[in-house]
Write a structure and sequence with these properties.
The protein is 35% helix and 24% strand. The chain has helices at residues 14-23, 40-50, 59-65, 80-89, 104-117, 131-141, 171-174, 177-193, 284-294, 303-322, and strands at 5-10, 30-36, 55-56, 70-73, 93-96, 121-123, 148-156, 197-205, 218-225, 230-236, 242-249, 252-257, 263-265, 268-269, 326-327. Strand 1, helix 1 and strand 2 (30-36) form a beta-alpha-beta unit.
Length: 329
C-alpha cells in the first residue's frame, strides 16, 4: 500500500485526541483525512486546531464521503460493536478502543466480519506496549522463572473516570469495572501466560450506590488457565492500594510495582531496558499502521486474540451475578 495510510478518526474526545496526537508524529505512515463526532465543539476543534477539514456528526456519511483506508474508533463502550461492524463492512481496517464490545456475541461478530472482509481488527490493549510489562513478558518467555504457576495483579485506586452525567456511570453503557479497566489487566496476565482462561470465579459489586451511578465498581476474581496456572486479579475504583503484579513459576518469581517502577527477579532489582523487543512495533498506533502498510497480520492485540480476554471478562461478570464458577467459552 502506498503511504501515508488515510485514517478516519471516529470520536474526538480525550481518547480520540490522544490517538490523533500520536498519528501526527508519524506523517510518513498516516494522514488523518476526516473526523467524526456528534459534538459541534469537537468538530470545530478538529478543523481549527488540527486542520482536519472534513468532519461529520455521524459515521455513515463520513464513510460514504471520505476516501480512507482505516478508522481509529474511540466512542463510548456501548457503541463499539455497532461502529466497528459498520466500518469493517465499508471496507476499512479498524482500531477499536478497549473494551472491544459489551457482549461476547458482539465480539465474535466483529472478529468474524473482519475475517470475512479481509480487514485488520485491532483492540486498544495499550499495556502490551508499556516497557516494564513487556520486559516481564520477555523474561517469562526466556524461561527466567520456569513454568509459570500463578499470576497476580492488583489495580486499586480512587476514581472511576466519569461523573454522574457521564455515559461511563451507567452499567449498560460502560460495562463497569471489568470491561473498563479489567480488560487491560487480564489481557496482560493472559499475554504473559500465552494461554486462555478456562474457568473463573468472581465477586463483582457496586459498593458506592448512587441514583445516577449503577456501575460495578469492585471486582476480585480467581481463574485457571489451560495448563492449570492460577490467575488472581483485584480491581477497585475506590481503595487507593496501588498497582502491582506478580508472576510466579517453578524456578522463580517476578515482582513489579507499577507505582514505583521497581522490577524484582528473585528479589534482585532489574534494570528495564529502554527498548524491549517483542513481535511487532514498539508503539500501538505504529503497529496498526505498519501491519496495514506491510499487508501482514497484527503481531499484538488482534481482535481474534483479544477475544479470549473478553470471554474471561464476561464470564467473570456472569460469575459475579450467579455466585458460581463459570467456564470461559
Amino acid at each position: 500500500m502506498d503511504i501515508p495510510i488515510r485514517i478516519l478518526l471516529v470520536g474526538a474526545g480525550r481518547m480520540g485526541l490522544g490517538h490523533l496526537k500520536e498519528l501526527l508524529k508519524m506523517p510518513q505512515l498516516a494522514t488523518v483525512v476526516g473526523g467524526v463526532d456528534p459534538s459541534p465543539e469537537a468538530r470545530q476543534r478538529l478543523q481549527e486546531e488540527y486542520g482536519i477539514a472534513s468532519t461529520f456528526a455521524e459515521l455513515k456519511p463520513a464513510l460514504e464521503a471520505v476516501e480512507s483506508d482505516a478508522a481509529i474508533i474511540s466512542v463510548p463502550n456501548f457503541l463499539h460493536a455497532e461502529y466497528t461492524l459498520e466500518t469493517l463492512r465499508a471496507g476499512r481496517h479498524v482500531f477499536i478502543e478497549k473494551p472491544m464490545a459489551l457482549t461476547l456475541a458482539d465480539v465474535d461478530a466483529m472478529v468474524q466480519t473482519a475475517a470475512q472482509e479481509g480487514r485488520l481488527l485491532m483492540s486498544g490493549q495499550t499495556l502490551r506496549f508499556v516497557g516494564h510489562l513487556r520486559y516481564v513478558k520477555q523474561l517469562i518467555d526466556a524461561g527466567a522463572i520456569g513454568t509459570v504457576r500463578h499470576v497476580l495483579h492488583r489495580r486499586m485506586g480512587a476514581g472511576r473516570g466519569g461523573d454522574e452525567q457521564s455515559w461511563f456511570a451507567r452499567q449498560h453503557r460502560s460495562g463497569g469495572i471489568l470491561p473498563g479497566i479489567g480488560v487491560h489487566s487480564l489481557d496482560v496476565l493472559l499475554w504473559w501466560l500465552g494461554e486462555r482462561a478456562t474457568s473463573v470465579y468472581a465477586v463483582v459489586q457496586n459498593i458506592d450506590p448512587h441514583p445516577d451511578v449503577d456501575i460495578e465498581d469492585e471486582a476480585s476474581l480467581v481463574a485457571t488457565s489451560q495448563s492449570g496456572a492460577m490467575i488472581n486479579a483485584a480491581l477497585s475504583f475506590h481503595h487507593q492500594a496501588g498497582t502491582d503484579w506478580v508472576a510466579a513459576g517453578n524456578a522463580g518469581v517476578i515482582n513489579l510495582s507499577s507505582n514505583s517502577g521497581r522490577l524484582l527477579l528473585n528479589g534482585e532489582e532489574q534494570q528495564v531496558p529502554e527498548v524491549v523487543e517483542l513481535p511487532g512495533e514498539l508503539q500501538i498506533q505504529h503497529e496498526f499502521l505498519a501491519a496495514i502498510r506491510d499487508d501482514r497480520p497484527l503481531a499484538q492485540a488482534s481482535g481474534a486474540e483479544v477475544r479470549q480476554v473478553m470471554a474471561l471478562v464476561f464470564a467473570a461478570q456472569e460469575s459475579g451475578r450467579t455466585g458460581q464458577s463459570v467456564l470461559v467459552p
